[in-house]
């Protein structure tokens, strides 16, 4: 029941997974300078760099990345701030066990700069989403969301800070459900088997 985490930078969501006691067997980055690698190595976790810049195409990069991941035969692959678009072949290889954390209430604000875009749109509720990854960018069955109230004087940075607190709460929980095979997808909708979910005040589409 192992977990491989992919990062590109700071790695605070990866850290939240580790601190939650989840069985992270390796952390892989597409950038050698990702700060999160230092933290992971300090925790005695295996780290690897598969640099996208070393490969001539997305397909070749994804194949090398998959080869590295598969060394660990993980039950779940978690994208924790992994800033690369993945090929359909890669996504299909890890179907139902590839999970992403995105800093918006999907399907609103897919892509980048979500906090600035949420402020520009004048929304009063923003947040984050954990979802299974499908070939369509930032789409895929939603496992959990958390909402944050937008304040009149928010900047993208202040809003990001409050959303990040929620990311660190819902990501480990959703990954744990996947590791424990509690997540079932039917007609693109997620159903979670967990009697305690309401006590954790998380927003999940359906609890069985
Ligand atoms: C997070 O906001 C995550 O939702 C997004 O990228 C950011 C990564 O932050 N996908 P960190 O590297 O986990 O600190």
Structural class: alpha/beta
Distance between the termini: 23 Å
Task: Name the CATH class of the largest domain.
Answer: Alpha Beta
- The tally of strands reads 9
Instruction: Find the CATH superfamily of the largest domain.
Output: Formyl transferase, N-terminal domain
Determine the number of helices (DSSP H or I, runs of at least 4 residues): 6
Shape by Cα distribution: globular
Tell me roughly what share of residues is in helical segments.
25-40%
Strand content: 15-25%
CATH topology value of the largest domain: Rossmann fold
* Largest sheet composition: 7 strands, mixed
pLDDT < 50 runs, ≥5 residues: none
Mean pLDDT across the residues is: 93
Write out the distinct hetero groups bound to the structure.
Answer: 5-O-phosphono-beta-D-ribofuranosylamine
How would you describe this structure in keywords?
two-stranded antiparallel sheet, 208 residues, 9 strands, 7-stranded mixed sheet, 6 helices, Rossmann fold, alpha/beta, binds 5-O-phosphono-beta-D-ribofuranosylamine, 2 domains
